[in-house]
Write a structure and sequence with these properties.
The complex is a heterodimer of chains A (479) and B (484). Chain A is an alpha+beta fold. Chain A has three domains: 288 residues, no CATH class; 113 residues, no CATH class; 57 residues, Arc Repressor Mutant, subunit A (Orthogonal Bundle), CATH 1.10.10.410. Chain A is 39% helix and 19% strand. In chain A, the strands form four sheets. An eight-stranded mixed sheet of chain A has the order 5-6-9-1-10-11-12-13. Chain A has a three-stranded antiparallel sheet with strand order 4-3-14, with no helix packed on it. In chain A, helix 7 crosses helix 8. The longest helix of chain A has 20 residues. The termini of chain A are far apart. Chain B has a domain of 273 residues: Amidase signature (AS) enzymes (Alpha-Beta Complex), CATH 3.90.1300. Chain B has 15 helices and eleven strands. In chain B, the strands form two sheets. In chain B, strands 4-6-5-10-11-9-7-8 form an eight-stranded mixed sheet, with helices on both faces. In chain B, a hairpin with a 2-residue loop joins strand 10 and strand 11. In chain B, helix 2 packs antiparallel against helix 3, helix 9 crosses helix 11 and helix 9 crosses helix 12. The longest helix of chain B is centred in the C-terminal third of the chain and has 21 residues. The chains are: A alpha+beta (479), B alpha/beta (484).
């Protein structure tokens, strides 16, 4: 039992899926040629002014409502002042004292199945900075301002996360939410969803927070877990060997699997926040909030609860299947086609289908295997045309061919043998071919039952109905 | 021809009594002849102006053209003009050519105004004497030993010497009204939000407002009518209809309630200047206005509030001049910090650097509450003082400046004395109110200015009062002898 308690707070940056930037009309699409999507406003040219993108506000309000937060009726944009080459204006427009989304909460499910409520301190709108490019430029630094002015929502949690795993569960939940709300594409490789982790440790049973380190810009769930684990171990080791944790910003190095110091508190910028005089306060009234609320989709918690109630799924299965809206929609489409088999559908979607998608690096909405085609296979399992084992073979073929289950079963002659006479015939042939094993079995070597199942299956190319085969062998083998 | 007002010139152009090319040639010749003496222009765009004048003449010949078609005009050199450099009076932007036009520039072009050049100004509009310009000081046409005022010194001097019938200007703490008073011309700073700030290089965003310097209130109304109005590219511009400022000019002033700003007549006001202002008030009384004294107790705090708020905003607004994307870049930067430090130290003059440092200080952790927040609170008190006053009177009046124009170099060494020159003008910016300066006589041979302040969006009332006054007086028609 560790004598230390971990305290984690996350600041998640989610890029809002608006078509244009938060304060200009330039496009936000990823991957364009450097500086091709930066207009004069993004470049911070003399005389230009920001104009707030109403869609970004709507998206932030959607998020606020989804986490049951208070929406600030009059939120204010502030300037965060610092010099950096990829920050064209010399300040970032953000929100400081009056963020658009005030306190809310997000529920996560812990490993033991219990539900924990994590407080969200605030969520505010801000613009992203550009990017500094170093590769292929020798000693020079290139600046790409395509990302400058891209709208972000920064979601700040209370320091209520108590382990790396909880932090990951929380981050995944936020990831799920923003995609349900269609306010962020969630693409972590492209940096659309990333986080900073504030990590500290304190002796178990104490109230006072330890000194925290902030790990910047982590862009995968796995790295969040590893970075926090590393940082916690580092801090404990440091304290136990008589040292002191200093407040600083650290970077996660995925190659070395460690965090390292970036800058200390003393070197930290004084951001000199003040209200941006170029932008009016954002006024939000009740009517607007209600209009946005009316457009909210069924949210993951509600959907999971419904899956348990309506389809008799376990809490765990419901959680997995509602992790994304596309997955949940797919599952429900399958169930609509085989209404009597919600559990079978859940097993196949979470099992074979997920494995195949993973293996090929595809998403559920790739269209590779439609819900209707998968349902066609499940119908044949349910009506015992094929066994579960054969079904896996058929699934493989469906995955690569695009054929329907029925067509494949027919073409390959995979239809299950349920004719008792045919199965008996096969059993008898196997018994005749293996007199020695038969004698051993009858002498008490029960384990050989499996051998006979295998032999008959082999003889019938796996098509014998397994339950029938079992029953018949039990009758016939003892003699 | 140059003695005519913009109103007369526009009418002559429309009636084809004069061509735009003739007018532009006349004024270009005057600009050229005066440039070494006055230094009112940073850039003269003779070729483009003549080409534009020819186009204007064709349009007028065909019975087309905007309300200012063919009228020679100039822009303060902080309004961005596509293809023509916009220096902001700074070495930092010595060679900066804007890729776009400010909204004010495109609106005036659409109205037919022909740009003859860009007018000199204090660097980044920071100054009250036009001595901070990287391109050298502008001289006062009434006496070349004197400053023209600032920061729109080029605009005021050019109109006073009739190098142009009118020009744009901007006012953050008095930068339209103070030089208008020093040069004996008419200037209006509209309500904050009335004129788009898009493309107007920022000094202090919550105070900056574009306006006009012209020979008369009627001319100013004619230009402002074209400039004003909502701009979707400026979130602080107000989406409200623009009245026809010309339509209300002749309204009689009987019944008009004028408040004399008590605090503006306190010690420090030059006695001869005060006599001019009081005589002007007498004219309004004769026109049927009633006059009473009004006290705005928080007004004396305007200068300290301004010198917290304006530098704070400027320190942030000017952060973009870092030598990375545009503007001055130092030679042979060793590293990033060296690039920043040297580009900015070389590119900005002393006054700009002083304000950036002041602003950085007042926004810093530990000082923000004591300076910036407190200044904003007092700013609200000043605004409330004005709101109370306008519950009792229609317009407030007083002197524009405490003294007439002073000598070049007289205040350069003492920034505080220089700052106090704006003591009467700053409060209107803090409250976002429209305000004018109108020539009201001569104090020891130098122009004095009557300041008129109105409630938000009362430009029509201001222009009406100024116009009626100018029908009774001829101070605004006086031209310095050397330029007559």
């Amino acid at each position: 039992m560790s004598a230390w308690e971990t305290v984690i707070g996350l600041e998640i940056h989610a890029q809002l899926a608006t078509r244009s930037k938060i304060f200009s009309g330039a496009a936000t699409a990823y991957g364009a040629a450097p500086n091709s999507q930066a207009c004069l406003v993004d470049l911070g040219y003399p005389g230009v002014l920001p104009v707030l993108n109403a869609e970004a506000v709507r998206m932030a309000v959607r998020f606020g409502l989804a986490i049951d937060a208070r929406i600030t009726r009059q939120s204010v944009f502030a300037r965060k002042n610092y010099f950096y080459p990829d920050l064209p204006k010399g300040y970032q427009i953000s929100q400081y004292e009056l963020p658009i989304v005030a306190t809310g909460a997000i529920e996560i499910v812990l490993e033991d199945g219990t539900v924990k409520r994590i407080g969200v301190t605030r969520a505010h709108l801000e613009e992203d900075a550009g990017k500094s490019l170093h590769e292929g430029l020798g000693a020079l630094t290139g600046i790409d301002l395509n990302r400058a002015g891209t709208p972000l929502i920064e979601i700040v949690s209370e320091p209520e996360l108590r382990s790396a795993k909880e932090a990951v569960a929380y981050m995944k939940k936020v990831h799920t939410l923003v995609r349900y709300l269609e306010i962020c594409d969630g693409n972590m490789q492209e940096g659309s969803f990333r986080c900073d982790a504030n990590v500290s440790v304190r002796p178990v049973g104490t109230e006072k927070f330890g000194t925290r380190a902030e790990i910047k810009n982590i862009n995968s769930f796995r790295y969040v877990e590893k970075a926090i684990q590393y940082e916690v171990a580092r801090q404990i080791e440091l304290i136990e060997s008589g040292g002191k944790v200093i407040q600083e910003t650290r970077l996660w190095d995925p190659d070395k699997g460690e965090t390292r110091s970036m800058r200390s508190k003393e070197e930290a910028n004084d951001y000199r926040y003040f209200p941006d005089p170029d932008l009016l306060p954002v006024e939000i009234d009740e009517a607007y909030i209600e209009a946005v609320r009316a457009t909210l989709p069924e949210l993951p918690d509600a959907k999971a609860a419904r899956f348990v109630a309506e389809y008799g799924l376990s809490g765990y299965d419901a959680l997995v299947l509602t992790a994304s809206r596309d997955l949940a929609d797919y599952y429900e489409a399958v169930v609509r086609a085989v209404p009597a088999q919600p559990k079978l559908a859940a097993n196949w979607v979470m099992g074979e289908l997920s494995a195949a998608l993973n293996k090929d690096g595809q998403q559920i909405d790739s269209g590779r295997l439609s819900a209707e085609r998968l349902a066609g296979l499940l119908v044949r399992i349910a009506d015992e045309t094929i066994s579960g084992k054969i079904a896996k073979e058929v699934f493989e073929a469906m995955w690569t061919s695009g054929e329907s289950a029925d067509a494949l079963i027919e073409a390959k002659g995979l239809k299950q043998i349920t004719d008792t006479g045919a199965i008996e015939q096969a059993i008898e042939a196997v018994m005749a071919k293996n007199p020695a094993q038969l004698a051993e079995f009858r002498a008490g070597k029960d384990k050989l039952f499996g051998f006979f199942v295998g032999q008959v299956m082999k003889a019938t190319q796996g098509k014998a109905n397994p339950a029938q085969l079992n029953d018949l062998l039990k009758k016939k083998l003892p003699g | 021809m140059h003695r005519q007002t913009l109103t007369q010139l526009a009418a002559d152009l429309r009636a084809r009594r004069v061509s735009s090319v003739e007018l532009v040639r006349t004024f270009l010749a005057r600009i050229e002849a005066s440039q070494s003496a006055l230094n009112a222009f940073v850039t003269v765009t003779a070729e483009q102006a003549l080409a534009q004048a020819e186009a204007a003449d064709r349009a007028l010949g065909a019975g087309r053209g905007g309300p200012l078609e063919g009228v020679p005009f100039g822009h303060k050199d902080l309004f961005c003009t596509a293809g023509v450099r916009t220096t902001c009076g700074s070495r930092m932007l010595e060679n900066f050519i804007s890729p776009y036009d400010a909204t004010v520039v495109s609106r005036l072009r659409a109205a037919g105004a022909v740009m003859l050049g860009k007018l000199n100004m204090d660097e980044f509009a920071m100054g009250s004497s036009n001595e901070t310009s990287y391109f050298g000081p502008v001289r006062n046409p009434w006496n070349r030993a004197l400053v023209p005022g600032g920061s729109s010194g080029g605009s005021a001097a050019a109109v006073a010497a009739r190098l142009l019938p009118a020009a744009t200007a901007t006012d953050t703490g008095g930068s339209i009204r103070q030089p208008a008073a020093f040069c004996g011309v008419t200037g209006i700073k509209p309500t904050y939000g009335r004129v788009s700030r898009y493309g107007m290089i920022a000094f202090a965003s919550s105070l900056d407002q574009g306006g006009v310097i012209a020979a008369s209130a009627e001319d100013a109304a004619r230009v402002l009518r074209e400039m004003a109005g909502f701009d979707p590219r400026d979130s602080t511009s107000v989406d409200a209809p623009v009245p026809d400022y010309l339509a209300g000019l002749e309204q009689p002033l009987s019944g008009l309630k004028i408040g004399l700003l008590k605090e503006f007549f306190d010690t420090g006001l030059d006695p001869a200047y005060e006599r001019c202002v009081r005589e002007a008030i007498g004219v309004f009384e004769r026109l049927g206005a009633s006059v009473r004294e009004i006290s705005l107790p928080n007004i004396p705090l305007s200068v300290p509030v301004y010198y917290v708020v304006a530098p704070a905003e400027c320190s942030s607004n000017l952060a973009r001049y870092d030598g990375v994307r545009f503007g001055h870049r130092c030679a042979e930067a060793r590293d990033l910090e060296d690039l920043y430090k040297r580009s900015r130290s070389e590119g900005f003059g002393a006054e700009v650097q002083r304000r950036i440092m002041t602003g950085t200080y007042v926004l810093s952790a530990g000082y923000y509450d004591a300076y910036y927040l407190k200044a904003q609170r007092v700013r609200r008190l000043i605004t409330a003082d004005f709101a109370r006053a306008f519950g009792e009177v229609d317009l407030l009046m007083g002197p524009t400046t405490p003294t007439p124009a002073f000598e070049l170099g007289a205040k350069v060494a003492d920034p505080i004395t220089m700052y106090l020159n704006d003591i009467y003008t700053i409060s209107a910016n803090l409250a976002g109110l429209p305000a004018m300066s109108v020539p009201c006589g001569f104090a020891a041979g130098l122009p004095a200015g009557l300041q008129i302040i109105g409630p938000h969006f009362a430009e029509e009332r201001l222009l009406n009062a100024a116009h009626r006054y100018q029908r009774e007086t001829d101070w605004h028609l006086r031209i310095p002898e050397a330029y007559a």
